[in-house]
Specification:
Number of helices: 12
Radius of gyration: 37 Å
Strand order of the largest sheet: 2-4-5-7-6
Order of helices and strands: HHHHHHHHEHEEHEEHEEH
Oligomer: single chain
Distance between the termini: 101 Å
Bound molecules: adenosine-5'-diphosphate
Strand content: 5-15%
Amino acid sequence: MITSKTLLKIRQNWISEVSNQLAPAEQLRQYLLEQLTKFFDLLGQAIDLRDPDILDPILSDWVKTRTETELENPEGSLMPVLSQIQIITFEAVMRNLDQIESAEIILALLPIFTHTMEFASTEETRLHVHHITGELEKTRTILEKLEKSKSDFISVAAHELKTPLTLIEGYVSMLRDTLPDDTTRKNLADIYLKGVNAGTRRLREIVDDMIDVSMIDNNLLSLNFQPLWLNHLLESIQRELEETIQQRNMSLCIKRFPGSDEMIFADGERLFQALRNVIMNGIKYTPDGGQVSIDGRILPGFIEITVSDTGIGIDPEDHSRIFEKFGRLGNVSLHSSGKTKFKGGGPGLGLPITKGIIDAHGGAIWVESSGYDEHKYPGSTFHIMLPLRKTPPDDKTAKLFKSLIESN
Ligand code: ADP
């Protein structure tokens, strides 16, 4: 039976040849000599014990000593080194031993080298995965910090803006009450005050949106479930937007769809806000003369509402981005400044709030559009899935509902 004694005959030769080929630089060779001697002796032990696992610790060390930069570089793999060692070993065996010994020792070494490659390759993959997971974790932490500071900024800015805004609103109202009796000057001052009022109203809407976004971010949005009918809700939105629709020469078509006239439990105020945002966007991103239509259907456990427009459309790669905070698309400086005008983009908080409200109801929202095109106007369709709640979702609402029915 072949033993390490046969292998020992090529020891000196093997060590100098492998070290010369693997490390042409003198300094490196010194370090390598130690490691190679150890590896060679372990090869011998593996032959004697018929156990290639004995090489695992040294292979593990070799894989581990490789730096992170080497890990990112596929050329830094240990595989070519091990296969070079194998070739040099077999050549040295054939050069220095007779034919029978050569054949026997190569037969004994083959499974050992196969094992070293398999083991080193598994170790490398494990380290790679470990390294990549670590990198992903670092990126995730950075993104989380960024998201947190964005959210903190919104919350602080909203609250800081709210106080001076309330002051301005109060003084404008006092000013109006103390206008001089002289009609010409009063009329003029009235016009100016209306301008200030319009500005503060818009600012109030933005501050309110910022507060809503920060509530959603911090899971503080609480819903007030009440019985409601979607067709009534949609009619109220239509009434509110009537003037804008007329100004833009557009049409808003609300179809009667299955489920729209059924009583469901939802937060009416928040749902109004969510649906108005989507319908308002349909108006904003559709040119004058276009159409926004609302339809829907009942699905098992849900009501699906669709809001379609004949507007500029949205590129598929932006379909999820628009639901993120400040997810405005295109060149923001080219957005029209009017809130209801064509492309009158806002701060990009409407859809994140809408999504937050729908999510809080246990529903889902997504958009379908073949792409953005300001010449062909492919349009967009927003889908809103709302749980079909026929009973109050909690005890508090149930009690309130019961007392309401009883008092009627
Ligand atoms: P904004 O206040 O800018 O309207 P939203 O959060 O409501 O913010 O919408 C985010 C972005 O999504 C918009 O700036 C716009 O680019 C795009 N968008 C939303 N709705 C539509 C639509 N119906 N058609 C085309 N683009 C839309």
